[in-house]
Design brief:
Alpha-Beta Plaits, alpha/beta, Molybdenum Cofactor Biosythetic Enzyme, Chain A, 3 domains, six-stranded mixed beta sheet, Maf protein, homodimer
Chain lengths: 422, 422
């Protein structure tokens, strides 16, 4: 049972915009045990769209269209799908009456174009749109002896997602053999993909009934496990068994196994131990604080801190002696240490974390002039001791800043894990 | 002349990954006067890939494959493209010799699988890959009386992009009628799309030879103009003429017309006037500072500031009287004003900007308990006066934080534009 997703809309054939609905739809279809085999993106052109629909109906069992259900001339999905199926569209009088009523209730006259949104493919069920004016459509039919399901959904994600979740998913579940899907995602920071694969492949390869995907990026490795069984109990059991074995192998490298991101895990760990954190950031310039404060409820454990981008502010906000900055350079182990200790003292937080480095593209100045781009020091002070890490990061400014913030979060996590004191 | 882009790779049919090469390729093809009419994403399955290749070759003039050129069993693009074209692949002996040599130079033995990367579609030109082991291929042929160009590119963006830019683009330019393309992007912040369209449509609709796209999102509207002519002079002239008329209509609402983002423009304006800036952020928690410091060279104009997430730090870092926070609540006009003035005084910057608000999902506490989620105050102090803006932002935590930072940047920009003092 394979599916094809067709995204209709000329804007997705420009360099500026991409189809994103298909990621959501793929996850939902996978939940039902359906794999997506093709995605097609096609413009607002009747011939192109009809051709794409014809191809899709011939090669896939389930075809889902997103977009092209609006009232304008460019909205052609209804006509194209009908033509590809070899049937007509019919204007649905009750749908039309409803549309007129909705406009009348707002004391507006319906533009004549809008009547088009009442066109329904012969044999299709109309799907109510709780968040917009374009109804969806669901059609189950037989073509050349093969059973086909064709679904038309509106393009805006705010309309498509609730319509799929509330209306289409139950209809598809009823039409398909029962499948129960269990998922787990294990996340690890700052560990090479090759190392994760070398250590975990011998384990997950034994689980031929669990689909494993490794994804790497942004200083993080994710292991996705998906099992599909006739009962949820069985699917969950297989995924949990594999998770247990991989967790035993990778030990503390795994920072989360239920989807939480690294900043959420760090805040959770601080919360459990009634600890607070403050940050002094130079090269990351607020990125670490911004990541932490993006987590709802973070204000209980993250007090704030300072963006000590200029040399003078390192003294003003974290009490780093100006001579130290002048002699060692702002990107140095002693300055990182003084920043972490200083921000902790100024804020009264349990932990002070600091980041100072050369993010590029231009090199440092003064004592930092000879230091390489990508050199970063992070320090974590807890009042009794201060850990400092020297990093040599690769890549451009954005990458260096991101990885520096990732290392800072991981340093906090590992310190909390190792320490018995907290 | 239309193109189709086929991205091959099963990982792009999961909920986790998307094809991104096609955005780059679309821009490059548009430069050559070629529109992309279809994008297809297909897994590592010979039957599926061959079918997709066959469809593409029949409906498009130029077909570009990305991915599937590696040495593994899953790398099937060569075979699929050849099958769809009805020709064979031949193992190229000189390519093979080169591959052996490359391995030998590193004192390694080439795995036998790798020989597959020397397979060349009959009639195709081999494209050297300066950044990886998989060569590309370029084939010009005639099918059923129609001229077709088929191009195979490696999937990793770091290999695909330089190969296209350096090798494929000149080959395509030579094969296609000469086209010169001029582009301009006008960007505006915090203005409704409907208003931009109502004011600019009467202008751009007159320029039927300039393609106009309006994109809205993240508190910004972009107007993209593209003209394609036989000379660059002519194309540039039309785009410039339209830009001039739209600039006259929208006046100061346009913050950039050469692609710069809002933070770059703000820093540029500060630089031109030898001004410096510091920020005190509560609800945005470092997001504004992080956006500013993401710009290379920002350290000259942005000194840094404080993330005053807890009430106490508003006093510690910006000297806001604790009684003021306790009586008015941290989300209030007087606190916003005191934060902006305080951070300016502490840092010695020309301007102090502050943001304080309720980002949700939980409401404020104490005096802020009754205030609505989305209430945000921003203040800008220049030493002689302090401007304060009250905002009522919609949406979730991420959106409220982003829009608050966008309003803060726009407040600085507008203040600098209006003021004669700087």
């Amino acid at each position: 049972m394979i599916a094809e997703i067709i995204a209709a809309g000329s804007e997705m054939l420009t360099p500026y915009r991409q189809d994103t609905n298909s990621l959501y739809l793929t996850e939902q279809l996978n939940d039902l045990g359906v794999q997506v085999a093709f995605k097609t993106i096609v413009g607002d052109n009747l011939e192109h769209l009809t051709g794409a629909a014809r191809n899709a109906i011939s090669r896939a069992d389930i075809v889902i269209f997103s977009g092209g259900l609006g009232p304008t001339e460019d909205d052609l999905t209804r006509e194209a799908a009908a033509a590809a199926l070899g049937v007509e569209v019919r204007r649905d009088p009750s749908l039309l009456a409803e549309m007129y009523k909705r406009y009348a209730a707002r004391k507006m006259v319906m533009p004549p174009n809008n009547a088009k949104q009442a066109d329904v493919i012969e044999g299709a069920t109309v799907l109510a749109n709780a968040n917009g004016s374009a109804p969806g459509q669901f059609l189950e039919t037989t073509i050349g002896g093969y059973r086909k399901i064709v679904i038309l959904l509106p393009g805006p994600p705010g309309e498509l997602k609730p319509m799929f979740a509330q209306v289409v998913k139950p209809m598809l579940a009823a039409a398909l053999p029962p499948q129960h899907l269990a998922r787990r995602t294990l996340r690890m920071a700052l560990i090479p993909e090759s190392q994760v694969d070398a250590r975990t492949a011998p384990i997950y390869k034994e689980f031929t009934d669990v689909e494993t995907t490794i994804l790497a990026g942004h200083g993080e490795i994710q292991l996705h496990f998906v099992a599909s069984k006739t009962t949820l109990y069985e699917a969950q059991g297989r995924v949990d068994e594999l998770t247990g074995l991989v967790e035993a192998e990778m030990e503390d490298a795994i920072f989360s196994s239920h989807g939480e991101n690294l900043e959420e895990v760090v805040l959770l760990m601080m919360g459990l131990r009634h600890l607070t954190l403050a940050a002094a950031e130079s090269c990351t310039g607020g990125l670490l604080a911004s990541r932490l404060t993006a987590v709802p409820g973070s204000s209980r454990y993250f007090l704030g801190g300072a963006v000590v981008y200029s040399d003078a502010l390192k003294t003003t906000f974290a009490g780093v002696p100006a001579e130290l900055v002048a002699t060692e350079g702002p990107v140095s182990e002693p300055v990182a240490k003084a920043l972490a200790e200083g921000i902790r003292a100024r804020t009264g937080a349990s932990f002070g974390i600091s980041i100072t480095g050369i993010a590029g593209p231009t090199p440092g100045t003064g004592p930092d002039a000879e230091k390489p781009i990508g050199l970063v020091y992070i320090a974590l002070a807890d009042g009794s001791q201060t850990r400092v890490k020297e990093l040599n990061l690769l890549g451009n400014r954005d990458r260096i800043r991101w990885w520096a913030s990732q290392h800072a979060l991981e340093l906090i996590r590992v310190t909390l894990l190792e320490s018995q004191a907290f």
